[in-house]
Each structure stands twice: as C-alpha cells, then as structure tokens.
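[step 3/7] fold_predict: job queued, chain A
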Amino acid sequence: MRKLEWMAGFVSMAMIFSAGLAVAGNISINGSTTVLPIAQKVAEAYMKEHPDVAISISGGGSGNGIKALIDKTTDIANSSRTIKPEEAQQAKAKGANPVELIVAYDCIVPIVHPDNPLKDITLDQLKALYKGEIKNWKEIGGANKPIVIISRDTSSGTYEVWEEKVMKKERVFPGALLQASNGAIVQAVSKNPNAIGYIGLGYAEKTVKLISVNGIVGSKETTLNKTFPISRPLYMYTPALPAGDVKSFMDYVISDKGQKLIEAEGFIPLK
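[step 4/7] structure written:
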C-alpha cells in the first residue's frame, strides 16, 4: 500500500442529532452517500473486532457531512470531494483544524437503461446533455425519443465533481430531475428507457448499463492510471488529528483488511 499522510484541512458537517462529539467508545460518522457503503462495511467488521466500540453512521451528502464537522456534531465526515475554501474559513473561525484522509478511489460513470443502444459518449456530449442543449436521443445516434436528464442534488459531492469535470463549472440545467443518492439515480434510470444519470462505480448494478466516456471504460485500472476522465479520491475528515477509538478506526479503514472490504464493495482500493 502506498504511504498515506494525514493532511490538515478545514471541514464542516451536520449530524442528525445534536449530541456533540462522541464520548469514548462511540464514533459518529456522517456525510457522503457515495462513501456511505464503505463506512458501513468497514464499521461492521471493526465493531465485530472491537465490541466495546459503537459506530453510528448516516448519509445526507458531502456538504452536510462537512457542515457537521465544522459544527463539531460528528467525529468523522465522509466526503466525495475536497473541502471548499469557504468551508475551511468557517472551520477555522470555530477553532477546528480538520484532517483529511484519502480512503479509496472512485470514478463517476454515466448510466442508461439496458434497452438504450448507446455504448459510448464524449465529455462534450455529456455537457451538452446536462446543459439541456441535446434533447433527443437521435441527436447522438439513439432512438427518436426525448432524453430525461437525472442528476444528483447540489449538496452532493458527486454533483460537485460532475460540475467540475463534466460541466466545467457551468450548472446543470433546471429541467434535470434531481436525486438525493446514487441508489436513487440507479432506481430512476432502471425504470425509464429514456433516462440518463451518473453514479459512483461502487453503485453499478445490472439494472442499468454503464457508458464509456471518450472511448474509455470506467474501471479500477482506468481510475488509478487517471485515463478515465471523471475520476476522484474519496475522503474521511476528522475535526482534528484523530486519537483514541477514532484513530484506531481510521487506521483500520486504510489497513490491508479495510481496503479489501472496500474493494469488495465495488470501490477502488489505495493499493
């Protein structure tokens, strides 16, 4: 495994309860729905080995996780994006000195209904679709059917990476149907032959079809060698240098055992 370093950053995160930071033996985790299955899988294994530690986990999106970390209502913030400068300023103002850890890698892949004949799409075509400029599948070689655009909501780290890497900082057009999670996008696309959406690779299911981008298939290999154009690290943030049970859990996440669990969930390990 390549050497990891804890990197100081500034973070924020909002929790579903207001108990403040966890006491010894209890760890609260909140944030990205993309990182959620990673946290759940590893936490389950960790608690079996450490029955004296209780870990509570909730989603809500990267933005909510970072907000909760700033507010000191969670111990760990899951995020599928890096912290923003304005979030860093808010955290600093509240006396936080968050620490960033890359826990896995992921790529964001476009998905369509299995009946859709589309196999590949360019970044320019994706941008035009999500700007509302391409409205019919026949414009890109498909059937004469209107395109239903499905996107993540703006609190999502996946949305923000999409906005950066696909939209080039332009906003998704207002006609897009917004979903709160990767799973919700999979479900929506699987039920609509005219829909297109995007998900983290770890959420790929047989009910939808993955589309290559610029002729490159999203995979472990193309993510690690950075040839797939919509790739990203996945993060866990703590409000300060982790200690005690939190440090023990974070170390477990990036251990060989933790990384094997992450790979088993369909995500890309750090090795």
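[step 5/7] annotate
Residues 1-23 have pLDDT under 50 and may be disordered.
The two ends are 5 Å apart (CA to CA).
exit 0
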